[in-house]
Design goal:
The protein is α/β, with parallel strands linked by helices. The chain has one domain. The protein contains 6 helices and 5 strands; from the N terminus they run αααβββαβαβα. The chain has a 5-stranded mixed sheet. α1 crosses α6 and α5 runs parallel beside α6.
Length: 158
């Protein structure tokens, strides 16, 4: 057996796609890889309504409490679906917007976030990076097998 599937070979191909161990070490690399892969860009400048696919921002209630809005349409906010009392839920909202949205790598969609340094952004990017890495790893293993590569030990695939 001359062509062996190794973790190093898989990682080499993952890195070529922007989803390897090297990229996993840096939040900016993770953010770039995820946004490029899913076809999105983030902005902190309030866009015209038709210029953004999703919006995440802080608002104040009438009595001065902060709430967080995560919506596709800031003109029609659903209290039960779009308003978050805590910002720790926003990472899931952002990840879902990117995962299930209409991003296009050639014509990236815009997501408005009023605080581009918010922790939830990195949490969402990490989640999406890990999901995409697993998908790419499975694709790479399949490609390697089609190219005639095999695992050195059958137990390695179990």
């Amino acid at each position: 057996m001359s062509k062996v599937i190794t973790p190093e070979l898989i990682n080499e191909r993952l890195e070529a796609k922007g989803f390897g161990d090297k990229q996993m070490q840096d939040d900016e690399s993770i953010r770039k890889a995820v946004l490029d892969h899913f076809g999105y860009k983030l902005t902190g400048d309030w866009p015209h309504r038709e210029d953004a696919e999703y919006y995440i921002y802080e608002e104040s209630t009438q009595d001065g409490y902060s709430v967080y809005i995560a919506t596709a349409n800031p003109e029609r906010i659903s209290i039960s679906e779009d308003v978050h009392y805590y910002d720790h839920d926003l990472g899931d909202a952002l990840a879902d917007a990117i995962r299930y949205g209409n991003g296009d790598s050639e014509w990236p969609e815009t997501i408005y976030i009023d605080d581009l340094d918010a922790t939830f952004i990195d949490e969402a990017m990490q989640t999406l990076f890990e999901e995409a890495s697993v998908e790419f790893e499975n694709e790479i293993i399949k490609q390697l097998e089609e190219e005639g590569y095999e695992y050195a030990d059958a137990e390695a695939t179990a």
